[in-house]
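Researcher: Let's do a round of design. I'm pasting the structure tokens now; please hold your answer until I've finished.
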């Protein structure tokens, strides 16, 4: 994790994962060559309908029945068995494989992670799966953006760019787009807190902040990531810093279950004009709420400013953030219903960089994490012809964070 903790050096070895069995064997050192030689095996991969598949015309089959993205060499894999069949030759050839897990609705932040993965690995697998286990029963699963055709077009275009860039070690080799039946072969256990089933829980970090408001969220994240890691068996996985608590949970998952995986965290990608963190959920905002959605980032920047001025106590740092939030609220309350934007603050946190526990004072030798979450409420009264955003502009939960660098630390 670039800002919160340095990823431990990992012994590179091969891991063959099967249900309830983990077998390890040390492998030879990976060659430093940048060769992209690919050993491929041929098999017919049956098409499985998936919630993420928005169009039956989004893929093409090459001779021999191998499904690929249109006009592209990128494999489209829909089953665990097809991924393992694809993976095995690269394991034997000592070619490194990276995984970039996504839920689709791809944006520049995802593409940045894929580019980095291609620089550092022979093969990149991008997973596209909207995981129902990380949505609460009252959350936005049904309205979550489904943009398969757009996602495919972006990946095909990016892969061509990577192929033309001689500085890359690899490129996008496969997209894993499973169905929920494939990911939960025993049946989906449900979204309730007391659901019965096979879950992975990482506590106490998964119970804090986001986990307090969304009690099944990190359980769902940890469970699906364990599944994806077992299926793809990557040497490296790539996540964005915007979901900073998620990166801490994933690092703990990898450490505690002794998985031979390096967790790489890429910086938060932001709108160049106003700094809003890129998120798949931004499409819900519409024009009016989008203009005020930067309130959280502005609040965190104000708090960071206090830290940079030498303030170390919690009260002094967070007071600056609270002042920004209250100022925007007062400004909006003075407007009419056809103009104003309403929002609620869930939390603004100052936490330890390794545990996400709240701290009263920042240790300058270790730094800290400023983070927050707000809910942008639906527009009260729309103006004629106003763009309310995707799905009519429902309530949108936005999160963001800023790393308080240790003294002498270098921001990535």
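Researcher: That's everything. Go ahead.
Model: Designed sequence:
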């Amino acid at each position: 994790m670039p800002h919160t903790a340095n990823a431990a050096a990992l012994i590179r070895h091969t891991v063959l994962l099967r249900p309830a069995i983990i077998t390890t064997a040390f492998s030879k050192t990976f060659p430093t060559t940048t060769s992209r030689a690919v050993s491929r095996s041929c098999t017919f991969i049956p098409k499985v309908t998936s919630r993420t598949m928005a169009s039956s015309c989004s893929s093409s089959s090459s001779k021999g029945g191998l499904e690929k993205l249109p006009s592209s060499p990128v494999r489209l894999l829909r089953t665990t068995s097809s991924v393992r069949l694809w993976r095995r030759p690269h394991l034997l050839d000592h070619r490194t494989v990276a995984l970039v897990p996504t839920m689709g609705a791809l944006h520049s932040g995802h593409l940045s992670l894929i580019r980095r993965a291609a620089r550092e690995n022979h093969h990149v697998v991008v997973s596209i799966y909207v995981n129902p286990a990380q949505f609460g029963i009252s959350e936005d699963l049904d309205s979550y953006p489904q943009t398969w055709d757009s996602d495919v077009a972006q990946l095909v275009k990016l892969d061509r760019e990577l192929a033309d860039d001689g500085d890359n070690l690899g490129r996008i080799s496969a997209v894993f787009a499973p169905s929920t039946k494939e990911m939960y072969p025993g049946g989906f256990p449900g979204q309730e807190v007391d659901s019965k089933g096979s879950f992975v829980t990482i506590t106490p970090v998964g119970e804090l902040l986001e986990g307090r408001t969304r009690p099944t969220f990190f359980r769902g994240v940890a469970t699906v990531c364990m599944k994806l890691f077992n299926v793809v068996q990557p040497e490296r996985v790539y996540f964005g810093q915007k979901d900073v608590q998620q990166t801490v949970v994933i690092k703990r998952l990898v450490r505690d279950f002794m998985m031979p995986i390096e967790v790489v965290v890429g910086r938060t990608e932001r709108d160049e004009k106003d700094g809003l963190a890129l998120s798949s959920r931004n499409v819900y905002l519409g024009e009016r709420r989008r203009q005020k959605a930067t309130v959280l980032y502005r609040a965190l920047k104000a708090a960071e400013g206090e830290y940079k001025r030498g303030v170390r106590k919690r009260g002094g740092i967070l007071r600056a953030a609270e002042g920004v939030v209250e100022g925007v609220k007062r400004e909006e309350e003075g407007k009419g219903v056809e103009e104003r934007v309403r929002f609620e603050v869930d939390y603004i946190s100052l936490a330890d960089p390794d545990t996400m526990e709240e701290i009263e004072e920042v240790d300058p030798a270790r730094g800290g994490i400023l983070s927050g979450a707000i809910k942008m409420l639906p527009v009260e009264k729309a103006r004629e012809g106003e763009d309310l955003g995707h799905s009519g502009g429902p309530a949108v939960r936005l999160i963001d964070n800023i790393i308080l660098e240790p003294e002498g630390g270098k921001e990535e």
